[in-house]
Each structure stands twice: as C-alpha cells, then as structure tokens.
Amino acid sequence: MHVGIIMDGNGRWAVERRLPRAFGHKRGASKVTEIVTACPDLGIKTLTLYAFSTENWNRAAHEVASLMKLFRGYMQSKFLQLVQNNVKVIFLGDSSPIKKVIVDQMRKLEEATEKNDGLTLNIALNYGGRDEILRAVQKFGMDASTGKANPKDLTVESFEKYLDTKGQKNPDLIIRTAGQQRLSNFLLWQIAYSELYFTKTTWPDFSVEELSQILMEFDQCGRTFGGN
Ligand code: IPE
Ligand code: IPE
Ligand code: MG
Fold it and tell me: How far apart are CA 168 and CA 166, in angstroms?
C-alpha cells in the first residue's frame, strides 16, 4: 500500500499554544519519525511525505531558514536509523534551488539506503506537482529531440518514467491533516485514482492510532478505477 501525507497544521498547532511557528515544525518532524517507524506494521510499503512545496519559498525568510535547518537536522540525526531500519529514502522535487550542503546530504541518504527493500520513504522537498510534470515534459522533449523518444509512442506508462516517482506505484490513499480540503500542488499526476482523506487533526497532533483508523476505513471503500 502506498500512502501520501500532506503534513499540514504545524503553524496553527504552535500559534494555538502561543509558541513560535518553528516549534510546530519541530514537533512535526518528531511526528515524522513516529509515523515512519509504524509503517511496516500497518502494511504501508511506500510513504510519501510532503515536506516543502515549491510555493513554500514565499514564507518569511526566517521560517524557510528554520525549515531548512530542520531538514538538515532530521537527515543527520536519523541517518543510521533509516539505514538500519531498511528504509529506502527517495527525494521528490527540484533540488536545484536548495543549498548544496543540504542537497549533498539528501544524495548521501539516498545512496546509503538505495539497496534497502523495506519501507520506501519519498520525501517531497521543493516539490510541486505542476513543476514535476513540466520537468518531465522537458526531459521527454530532450529525448525526443535526440531521437531517443518518439512523441507518437508516448503513453501513460512511458511518460511516468520521466516523473520523480518513476518505477513506483501510484498512491492508494492521500491524507491531509489540519482541516483544509485541497491538494496544494501535491502529486497531481499520481493521484488520479487515489482515495482522499481529510482530517481536522493538525500534523503534530496526528497519531499512529488515527492513521490505523483511517487505514481501516480505507479497507472498506470499494475502488473501481472507472469500472464497476
Ligand atoms: C505544514 O504546516 C508544514 C509546511 C508547509 C512546511 P504549516 O506551516 O503550513 O502549518 P499551518 O497550515 O500554517 O497551520
Ligand atoms: C502544503 O501545505 C505543503 C506542505 C504540507 C509541505 P501549505 O500550508 O503550504 O498549503 P496551503 O498554503 O494551505 O495551500
Ligand atoms: Mg499550512
């Protein structure tokens, strides 16, 4: 099973407690560890987490900086745990605007966990669904111009090879925390037939129990993919 999560509500969690937003993000990061650890027991084979969108650069500079610091800290402190727990980490998104020290760590983590075959953990960092599709079209265009690909032969399957999620199954279920019922540019191509679940719980307050409850509800929904 492939589950995607739009981890929203860190800011509101903090503001409700009269804390700086950065505290909410910190809490959110520890929630990531809790959920990632629970995935194998819940039957989740792939988890895709929306960590930072292509639009999130529009936030105050200090908030962007604290998020970047948090990503670095997460990768450093969880490196061994992820390697040893058989987690395969893949980053989705355009890494080109991200600082080199962070990108180096991302690549190191991907390489160190490349051969792991337990949970696949996709971390969407500077990710936007539209941006991903545009980058895929650009790559396809390059292949077409050098004769490596023929526009006439383009199919859903051959196009998917150009996406950041190449070789992976599409998500079965997308969960968004903190009440908003929108996708905010998450996995636009891949979610064509995904089930969507919105919970009012903020991400720092989300729990393994709630996730397992959602999965039980998901089990009962019939998916027909346009058939009957
Ligand atoms: C989600 O929490 C974390 C990121 C977008 C990085 P928010 O920071 O969006 O929290 P709210 O939506 O303001 O409560
Ligand atoms: C979506 O949350 C992005 C992430 C969770 C990383 P946002 O808080 O950025 O989305 P909007 O602004 O509510 O659409
Ligand atoms: Mg938000």
Answer: 6
Q: How far apart are CA 8 and CA 53, in angstroms?
A: 11
Residues 34, 220: Cα–Cα separation, whole Å: 25
CA–CA dist 148, 162 (Å, integer): 13
**How far apart (Å, rounded) are the C-alpha atoms in residues 93 and 146?**
25
DSSP letters spanning 93-133: S--TTS-HHHHHHHHHHHHHHTT--S-EEEEEEEE-HHHHH
Interval 68-86: pLDDT, tens: 999 999 999 999 999 999 9
Task: Please name which ligand lies nearest the alpha carbon of 12.
Answer: 1
**pTM score over 0.90:** yes
CB 64 less than 6 A from any atom of ligand 2: no
Please tell me if the CB atom of residue 32 comes closer than 6 angstroms to any atom of ligand 2: no
pLDDT (0 to 100) of residue 228: 84
pLDDT tens, residue by residue, 166-193: 999 999 999 999 999 999 999 999 999 9
Residue with the nearest Cα to atom 11 of ligand 2? 184
How many CA within 13 A on the CB side of residue 35?
25
